[in-house]
Design a protein that fits this description.
The complex is a heterodimer of chains A (225) and B (231).
Chain A lengths: L24 H45 L5 E8 L2 E3 L13 E6 L5 E11 L4 E9 L4 E9 L9 H4 L1 H5 L9 E3 L9 E3 L5 H28 L1
Chain B lengths: L18 H6 L15 H6 L4 H25 L8 H23 L1 H7 L10 H11 L4 H31 L1 E2 L2 E2 L14 H29 L4 H7 L1
Helix pairs in contact in B: 3-4, 3-6, 3-7, 4-5, 4-6, 6-7, 7-8, 8-9
The chains are: A alpha+beta (225), B mainly alpha (231).
Chain lengths: 225, 231
């Protein structure tokens, strides 16, 4: 007879005298402590199991990005920035993951085709991290790819999803200048995206700043070769 | 985000329901999102594409089912005073496990979901089910309940994600539907589109429920049995 509409709020009957016997603080602590310990063990296991795959994913993503912005080089070297100079060898006792890395790609004939540089600057929502290929001799970019961004979907994220915007970086000459969409006339100019001015400006600024910052080190390394 | 301020009293307890009802009630009749309006934060935030919706739904489903199983298993040994803290501890553990798994298996989608994977911890549906169901019922029924509610959450996300991706990007699961000449209705993948879509979905459901109620009323003279079947 009490078979009413199940979605209706059923009146909560107070639990029948489940004696609220004083639970000692040590019991509470022990329960939570034990729970925490079990949780910790579970997390360590999950972390250990997934870590190799996560690192492989990261390395693979970076490898693909380097391939893309250097236009599929024959091979590439990973160079580390140590005290303002690029070197292939990491000094003893330093963690290579903590050093800034630059990638130097070589063509089929064994000659360098360009550097791939990772750089990041604050965009509209959050830091935009990108990678670009750069040919030192011609001062031309080879390509640009956004690695990480949280720009507005539909507007700011066109910096990575709009093929027209991305494509114009290949062959553009540094330092870049952003111009209004459709006004591109010189090789140093890049059409910005309507509705994503700040995001497109950040991409251009990131590349320019990275070249100013790393330019001497790239020059020095190339000259050494 | 007001996720934690939910009322467990909004959910029915288990008294007088069959295992089948435990399972199926979450899909539609007590759908956590569409009927109880819980967990709206991820519902609005990550449903801008079908793929994101599916992965978010699976992650939440996994956390909900594992937490319910765990909570209902250990409920006898957890003192009442610290039950919420224990639930959160269990939930947070499974969320972190899910986070690692997503990072390892679908790195691109993990990136797209951003902070919302970690925020499953405060998803009201999960804590709500522990408090309203798993903390009071045996493991088997709690898992059924969690599967139902997790499935219901997935259904809701899928509805939202499909509408928003089709209108906002002109694609379904990344496959173009209308060809290159379609100018996407971008606002549907932006936050306002989430609110519009949710409003229309809820409106449709309210309208449907009202029509059903009217039909039940019309059928009433023919006996109570018909009314009960329709309800």
């Amino acid at each position: 007879m009490n078979d009413g509409d199940a979605t209706r709020v059923t009146a909560e009957v107070p639990a029948p005298a489940q004696e609220p016997a004083e639970v000692s603080a040590s019991r509470l602590l022990a329960t939570l402590g034990l729970g925490g310990a079990v949780a910790g063990v579970l997390l360590v296991i999950a972390f250990g199991v997934t870590l190799p795959k996560i690192e492989a994913n990261r390395a693979h993503a970076r490898h693909l990005a380097v391939q893309e912005v250097l236009k599929a080089p024959e091979r590439y070297d990973t160079l580390y920035l140590v005290n303002g100079a690029l070197t292939k060898k990491v000094p003893d006792g330093t963690d290579p993951k903590k050093l800034e890395q630059v990638y130097l790609g070589y063509g089929a004939n064994g000659r360098p085709v360009g550097f791939a540089v990772v750089a990041a600057e604050p965009g509209f929502q959050d830091t935009i991290r990108l990678i670009f290929g750069y040919d030192l001799k011609t001062k031309q970019l080879l390509g640009m790819k956004v690695l990480e961004s949280k720009e507005t979907p539909g507007l700011g994220d066109k910096i990575e999803k709009d093929p027209a915007f991305v494509a114009q970086f290949a062959g553009a000459e540094a330092p870049l200048v952003g111009v209004k969409k459709g006004k591109r006339a010189k090789p140093t100019e890049v059409d910005m995206i309507t509705g994503a001015t700040i995001s497109s400006r950040t991409v251009i600024r990131t590349i320019n700043n990275a070249l100013v910052r790393l330019g001497p080190a790239l020059d020095a390394y190339q000259a050494e070769k | 985000m007001p996720e934690l301020s939910c009322h467990a009293s909004m959910m029915t307890t288990s008294k007088g329901t069959s295992p089948r009802q435990d399972l199926t009630k979450g899909f539609w009749r007590e759908n956590p999102v569409l009927i109880h309006l819980l967990g709206l934060c991820p519902t609005l935030a990550v449903t801008n594409s079908v793929a994101n919706s599916i992965v978010m739904g699976i992650a939440t489903f996994f956390v909900l089912v594992s937490s319910s199983l765990f909570v209902s298993t250990v409920r006898r040994w957890v003192p009442n005073e610290i039950r919420i803290a224990t639930y959160i501890l269990i939930i947070a553990t499974f969320v972190t496990v899910a986070e690692f798994a997503l990072q390892a298996l679908v790195p691109d989608i993990y990136k797209a979901l951003g902070p919302f994977v970690a925020l499953i911890v405060v998803n009201c549906i999960i804590l709500g089910r522990q408090e309203a169901f798993a903390g009071k019922n045996p493991a088997g029924r709690s898992v059924l309940d969690a599967v139902g509610m997790g499935g219901g959450f997935m259904i809701a996300l899928l509805i939202m994600g499909s509408v928003r991706e089709v209108l906002g990007s002109g694609t379904f699961l990344g496959v173009s539907l209308f060809g290159p000449r379609y100018e996407p209705w971008v606002i549907f993948v932006l936050p306002p589109g989430g609110f519009f879509t949710l409003a229309f979905v809820l409106l449709t459901i309210a309208w449907w429920k009202e029509r059903q109620a009217a039909r039940v009323k019309a059928a009433e003279p023919h006996g109570l049995a018909a009314a009960e079947r329709a309800a």
